[in-house]
Design a protein that fits this description.
There is one protein chain. The chain is of the alpha+beta class. Strands 1, 2, 3, 4, 7, 10, 11, 12 and 13 form a 9-stranded mixed β-sheet that branches. The chain starts with a strand and ends with a helix. The chain is elongated and about 75 Å long. It is built from 9 helices and 19 strands.
């Protein structure tokens, strides 16, 4: 089985599921998952996990993201983007660059955002987008999201080009809609490019054709990102030989059962996560420090025990 992460550039016209389906055909493997839906009209970074790396899909979905978007003022649509049915058009004659910028700055920080009907969220077991296509509108609970920063690169009313750093769960379509409503003109998203998901950036992303060529040339391994790199910000620990069996079985590890690569850090930090490896350098999993019990407790196992038996 192929294990690792591919930093895919999702092209316009593909759904996130389309990307996964095509990759399954390219690499000849079913166990593949994506890390967060991008609308068909959107482009950009879509980390895709293969094999055991699918265990980190939810963790990558939780990462902060960066988007480049164009907001079109004066138009409201049912999908909150340019592809939707026009619900209303309003004049933008009273909107100056200064007024628009001040309004946008007001969205930096936390705010309660109501997810759009055209989204993959489920209500009562059904996707909102499926309900919307049936002409149904259901009540959605607002969700607290955080806009870390908005950098405005160009204002040419009715269009505003901006870069948004935000938390997980933020809908840029809805942000554009909400800005338009606050300005009194209405607004929708004209284009969207996701440039970053956590540590994965657009500069190192790969189009599907590039991956297909690499597979044909036997170079897929060069493109795969090891799944432990997702946790690069967390300190690495190595299990001592006598405690390896405990780690392989997912048991808690005493502080004395591990050694640190960085010995200058002092005591293990309470409630901190750590990457744990065996003496052969195999990534076992993520452990959290329980200072009260003076042990490390497994949060997520990534090592396949069967692989140890095969190697043995």
């Amino acid at each position: 089985m192929i294990n690792g992460i591919l930093n895919i550039y999702k092209e316009k016209g593909y759904t996130s599921h389309d990307v996964v389906a095509r990759l399954r055909g390219i690499v000849g493997q079913k166990k593949i998952g994506h890390t967060g839906t991008l609308d068909p009209d959107a482009e950009g970074v879509l980390p895709v996990c293969l094999g055991r790396a699918t265990k980190v899909c939810d963790l990558l979905t939780d990462k902060d993201k960066t988007y480049e978007a164009v907001l079109l003022l004066g138009r409201s649509t049912d999908t909150q983007d340019i592809s939707g049915q026009i619900l209303e058009e309003r004049s933008v004659s009273g909107i100056t660059a200064g007024k628009a910028e001040a309004c946008i700055r007001g969205f930096v920080g936390e705010y309660d955002q109501i997810p759009p009907m055209y989204s993959a969220l489920k209500v009562g077991g059904r996707k909102l987008c499926d309900l919307a296509r049936e002409g149904k509108v259901v009540e959605r609970k607002s969700r607290r999201v955080k806009i870390h920063e908005i950098r405005i690169s160009e204002i040419r009313i009715p269009r505003i080009r901006m870069t948004v750093d935000c938390s997980k769960g933020t809908y840029i379509r809805t942000l554009c809609h909400d800005i338009g409503e606050k300005l009194g003109t209405g607004g929708c998203m004209e284009s969207l490019l996701r440039t970053r998901v956590g540590r994965f950036s657009i500069s190192s992303s790969l189009r599907l054709d590039q991956v297909e060529k690499a597979v044909q040339e036997g170079r897929l391994g060069e493109l795969l990102i090891p799944l432990d790199e997702v946790f690069a910000e967390q300190e690495a620990l190595t299990v001592k030989a006598g405690a390896a069996a405990l780690a392989y079985n997912g048991n808690p590890l005493s502080f004395g059962a591990v050694t640190r690569e960085n010995r200058s850090g002092g005591a293990l930090s309470p409630d901190q996560r750590y990457r744990v490896y065996d003496r052969e350098g195999r990534f076992i999993g993520i452990y959290r420090c329980d200072a009260q019990r003076r042990e490390l407790r497994l949060e997520k196992m990534f090592l396949d025990p069967e692989s140890l038996h095969r190697q043995g």
